[in-house]
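Revision sheet: structure tokens.
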Amino acid sequence: MLNFVNDHNDKKDKQLENLENLVENHTRTERHLEQYSNIGNPYNKEHAREIQKIREEQIQDLESVIKDEDKYMSPEEHLQNLKDNYRNTENYIANNKNSIDAQMLQNLQEKQKHRKEQIVFLQDKD
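Predicted:
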């Protein structure tokens, strides 16, 4: 897999894994609160409910970040991201041109063309 794609995918994978862990912990704690509501220390139950509220907020925040990631990126960050991806892909093509199948090479070159157009457009906007 391409290096520049891996960085973004790794970040997404970590966010999704974090979301999954939060949901699992929330569900497990909720189940325990329901099953053992008649026993246990009232203070511990209240503390668990407070933790549940915090987890619910974290779940909502993480879902928002995952869904709307581009909304949190400034125009400068977006332009820099495009430039980085363009440069990384150029390096990848240069280093692996002989081992890339023709269709993938064509797709990469087409993507690069679009990135270049976006870069020019965003730079001219300023």
